[in-house]
Amino acid sequence: MFFRKIIICLLFCCLAIPLFAASMFSPNGFVEEHFGSDNFGSGMGFTGISSIFRKNFSIINPALLTTVNKANFSTQIDFGYTIFKDSHESYTNKVSSIPYAAMYVPVAKGTIIGISYLEKYFFGLDTALDSSASIIGDYFVTDQKFGSLNQLGFALAKRIGVFGLGINMNYIFGNRTEDLLVDYSDGDLIDTREIKEHLMDGVNFSAGFTFPYKAFSFGGFIQTKAVLHSVDIYKIEYYNNSNYDYESSKTSKYDIPMQMGFGTGIEMTDFLYAETNLRYTFWKKTNVPKMNDRNTSMISLGISYTPKKDFFWKIPTRIGGYYRQLSGKYNDNYINEMAITAGFDIPIMLLNQGRLSMSVAYGARGSIDKNIYQDDFFRVSFGFSSTDWWRNPKEFKKDKEIPKLDPKYKEYWN
């Protein structure tokens, strides 16, 4: 069972890698976001809001579930690195993530239910500074910022004529943590550790639509604002002298902004498809410090190539790119991000049980000239999508042996 071995390997990789991302601008909040696109859409500039001409595993637009006609599963693994730069030096941080997983099952004609996981907002930053003070001697500082906001969604979609409609209830949960360690070289001084942790959860809803018109496809979604309940914990730990340890806790509210998006696609030929998406996020209507300076938009564009059998290049291929605004400032200038992407299907036979895809993204966040710092990032993503696992299991697809009639019934053969 080759395809099962592939799936087991992917699941093992999912469990084995650390879940974090990286940005020099992480102190400004959740500056990195996964956009709810599957691996196919990731290679097309993270489009996919209106891709009704193919099977979709979109998490952001629940109406696209109406393109899934059979029971399906999809997931993705990201690997890569980020290079942090300023005008003097740079250093590299490896990153990895499991951005989404989704499973959808048709329950009636044109009606699909599903469950999905999305690592919507995430960040991670690990910095170290070797310094000294004239009074207290040498010390080593390590500052770690990490965390994520995850979305567990329960979806219902219905096809009515040419229209697809979908709704999603999303449970959002996660944390933000800053861990600051001061390690003194002088053994007579007490090393200290300061921890600020925010544990958050809440609920919001999303709804979407899709419809075709001739060679065009249209789709859109809206996701409501979420007010998360947050338990804020503050700790100070003194190594080798716990008598001075301190801990306090309080509750607060943490907003996740309303977001809406619209997409349109066109089948230019029977093997070329192009799509553009626009997303808009209402950060100014939230209470998130350093992340509510402006509302933000993201525009993305992608093209996919699905070859005919008689074409020379027979591997399905995608290219694309996007430009994205971030909601915060650094050096009194807004932070922007842009990237180019590419993707293709991996030519490995999975016994008609699924498809392996690969996508890459290369881009930059911020600018040394405007923001002092700049992130250059490179991501490689491997995605798996299943096909028809339960409705037509393999054992019912293979050829059947026709039973022979018992000779004692020979008189009835004619």
Provide a compact summary of the structure:
The protein is mainly β. The protein contains 3 helices and 18 strands. It has a single domain (2-412), classed as Outer membrane protein transport protein (OMPP1/FadL/TodX) (Porin, Beta Barrel).
Report on the architecture of this protein:
The structure is a single chain. Residues 1-20 and 389-397 have low confidence and may be disordered. β2 (72-85) and β3 (90-97) form a beta hairpin. This protein is mostly beta strands. It has 3 helices and 18 strands. It has a 14-stranded antiparallel barrel with strand order 2-4-5-6-7-8-9-12-13-14-15-16-17-18.
- Per DSSP E runs of 2 or more residues, the count of β-strands stands at 18
- Compute the CA-based radius of gyration: 25 Å
How would a crystallographer describe the biggest sheet? Answer: 14 strands, antiparallel, barrel
CATH class: Mainly Beta
Number of domains: 1
**Given the C-alpha coordinates, what overall shape results?**
globular
Instruction: State the fourth-level CATH superfamily.
Output: Outer membrane protein transport protein (OMPP1/FadL/TodX)
Instruction: Name the beta content range.
Output: over 45%
Helix content: under 10%
How many helices? The count is: 3
Give the helix/strand class: mainly beta
Named CATH architecture:
Beta Barrel
Please mark out the parts with pLDDT under 50 across 5 or more consecutive residues, or reply none. 1-20, 389-397
Could you give the order of the helices and strands? HEHEEEEEEEEEEEEEEEEHE
- CATH topology heading: Porin
Average residue-wise pLDDT: 84
Major sheet: order of its strands? 2-4-5-6-7-8-9-12-13-14-15-16-17-18
Q: How widely separated are the two ends? A: 44 Å
